[in-house]
Amino acid sequence: MRQALSGLNLALLTVTGGLISTANMALAQQLPEEPFTEARSEGPTRLYLDVDPAARPPSPPLPSSTVSRQSDPEPATTVVEWQAQIEASRVQITGIRVESTETGLQVVIEAGGNLATPTQSVSGNALVLDIPNAALAEPVQEFEPAEGIALVQASTLPGDIVRLAITGSDAVPVVNITTEAAGLVLAVTPGVAQAGAEDDAIQLVVTGEEDGYVVPNATTATRTDTPLRDIPQSIQVIPQEVLEDQGVIRLNDALRNASGVVSSSADQRGQRFIVRGFNGATVLRNGVRLTPGGGNFGFQELSNIERIEVLKGPASILYGNVEPGGAINLVTEQPLSEPFYEVSFRAGNRNLFEGGIDLSGPLSEDGRLLYRLNALYRSEDYHRDFDVPIERFFIAPVISWAITENTDLTVSLEYDNSRRPADFGGLPAIGDRIAEVPFNRITGEPGDEATNETLRIGTEFEHRFSDNWRIRNTFSYYRFDPTFTANVTAFVFNEPNGDFVRAYIKNRQLSQATALQTNVVGEFSTGSIEHTLLAGVDLSWRRFESFRLIDLTPQPIFNIFNPVYGTPQPTSFSDPLPRVGGSYTEFYGIYVQDQIQLAENLHLLAGLRYDIVAGSTATTASRDTAFSPRLGVVYQPIEPLSLYASYSRSFAPNGGTTATGEFLEPERGQQFEVGARAELLGGRLVANLALFDITKQNVATADPNPLNVGASVAAGEQRSRGIELDVIGEILPGWNVVANYAYTDATITESNDNVNPEGNLLFGVPEHNANLWTTYEIQEGDLAGLGFGLGVNYVGDRFGDNANSFVLEDYFLTNAAIFYERNDWNFALNIRNLFNVQYIDSSEGSRLIENRPGEGFTIIGSVSVEF
């Protein structure tokens, strides 16, 4: 959807000393025409192109006109006849075979009729052939199909053009043409770089835009751009196309596309998630923690997200103090070098209205200065009985500057101002189930309101000393300022009767986080062993302040079965709110990691991190240190299959305090994981199977001394183990699928707490969790571009608290979509929870509050246009 020149993205490769380094970019101008050979078509079914990569021989340019061997049709006299002639003239390419030969390469194009003569051009080391009046059944992309050939790719461009690009590793391939009965054969041999060529000569490799359900590389697991097949840890990537097909606007819906991820809370201060059985998964934005040390981080906007990467298991080696379940990284869109403009609108039930823009392109004539601007306004009614709607204004400008050929700087800003109901209550438990009341019923007041203001400023700097060594620096400032006024449940007065006592509260929790990351990446060899070395330091600071007023004046009894609303706001409440507490925490980390390729099919990953965390409040101070190692191995017995095993550790400061007021020892976690990743159907379909065992120690539990009421000791242990299966990709042309299943056994294994004893299951974690989403888009004919989607979400029974005193019942949701893409227009109709199932989406472990109902039937229509 984010297009480069003629629908293709280009990777700019700089050749220095025979080595190639890559920096993603897109051409901003038409590829230069430099034809160097002749191409002809013969026969009714095939066009043969034999690609032979040596020097670039001069030859006269080919005419750009289309050559046809058929007699000219009679002129059309009606629009219908004109459209029929266009359809008849377009030849369907049914397949493209790329075959290696002793001297290079042969490309065979199979078609259902006579193909017109391709027009040819050269750009850098790429030979580009455009075949007019043709349609391609299935895109082709093959990396390094022969020695000296970097890439062969074919795709369909607007205007019924099929583009075939063949790129040499060091020079433009040499093409020797022969004619056979079946068609045209282009024997390609690798080009030879000209003697005396400058070291920084530029070549082009057509890689295609990152479009589709399969993303081959990720950065979250290693902080380097690494193929997923070489990573010894489970990581799922949710690309932008999946988010668009599903019409996703909330992060919890997006994360259903990754196994073992469920919601744990979604009060007015933001969403939180459970990954692999552990609550409070770390959320990153472009690899930077939003709130180091935990806390709320708001409702993340997805309109400028390129993809979501979900790393399973401990991630302390790269990100410091985190929960052992995993980390969620939101990767944002970056500026394009070609002008791109998109306007989008959404409308739906519950009075949803949304308007957004996505603009990008160059700011300077030389293309060194680029920009991107995402902006959005959204308004909708809440899915429960509040009078306050959800409103959001979001803007995110990005500027990138290629200071020199080896130095880049990107500056980004995100500002989000939102208003929403202060839904702190959820529904209470009565007995061992949620109270049997309509799920849209609230325990607060209809006018309870919350505002969230978020500001993020970031910079990314990279300098390349050579093709093999570079230094990167990232700066981030994040400010999250949530305020709410609400009637909240103070305690249950009479549970069987559903009577409550409520208290009025006005609360503000200001969190400010500054982070600075610097690392060096180097690629080198020791004999036949190749290394990618990463070494760096992390520095971050977080300041948290709490401002609050509570009115404890007795209110009328509130009954959940027969609610009476209308309690007025106390007149004594006024701004500014008094400061009631706060904390300041400093985080320092140093790490080193080596990705080692012992052989073509054997990879080793080893790393170690050392952290120092120093925190203080008005009355206490703490200082914790930790070593966090990681070790993993990947073995690939055959090219499409990776088998891996890994061990990793995590740590996180402990919020519990002893009877003397001292903080407890940090929580420690360790994971053993084994798994397999298969790339099927030529890499278009990917499956990942993982078995894991995670143990978390030093969990705060109640002090066994009855005199130390409210104190804790670090005697608890929790364990989560299970199996996860993720499948994503394209089964057949136009048929995509995302499917996952997780079995999770999350248990309290050690505890001094009689309320939460050993053997109990961790709250909010379903034993079984499965999701499926599939779409099909018609590929040809009058209905080409029309598609349909169908999906289901299943979450099994969960306990609502660690005491296992009540159950959140399982639920099954059905989702659907219909969409149509034509030229630059996109239309879609998305339905979630088709049968309006009532269910509890998340719980924070309390019988009284935070048992939050999910959204009912939701229908959203959307339209967007690119120009």
CATH topology of the largest domain: Maltoporin, Chain A
What gross morphology would you assign? globular
Tally of alpha and pi helices = 4
- How would you name the CATH homologous superfamily of the largest domain? TonB-dependent receptor, beta-barrel domain
Number of domains: 3
Q: Would you spell out the secondary-structure blueprint of this structure?
A:
Blueprint: E1 10-16, E2 19-25, E3 46-49, H1 79-89, E4 91-100, E5 105-111, E6 119-123, E7 126-132, E8 134-136, E9 140-146, E10 149-157, E11 161-168, E12 174-180, E13 183-189, E14 201-206, E15 217-218, E16 226-227, E17 235-239, H2 240-246, H3 251-254, E18 261-267, E19 270-275, E20 278-279, E21 282-285, E22 288-289, E23 305-312, H4 316-319, E24 326-332, E25 340-348, E26 352-362, E27 369-380, E28 390-404, E29 407-421, E30 429-430, E31 433-434, E32 449-464, E33 469-494, E34 499-526, E35 529-551, E36 558-559, E37 579-599, E38 602-616, E39 621-638, E40 641-652, E41 667-680, E42 685-702, E43 712-732, E44 735-750, E45 768-777, E46 786-795, E47 798-799, E48 807-808, E49 811-822, E50 825-832, E51 840-842, E52 852-853, E53 858-866
Parallel strand pairs: 4-8, 21-24
Antiparallel strand pairs: 1-2, 1-14, 3-5, 4-5, 6-7, 7-11, 9-10, 10-11, 12-13, 15-16, 17-23, 18-19, 19-20, 21-22, 23-24, 25-26, 25-53, 26-27, 27-28, 28-29, 29-32, 30-31, 32-33, 33-34, 34-35, 34-36, 35-37, 37-38, 38-39, 39-40, 40-41, 41-42, 42-43, 43-44, 44-45, 45-46, 46-49, 47-48, 49-50, 50-53, ...
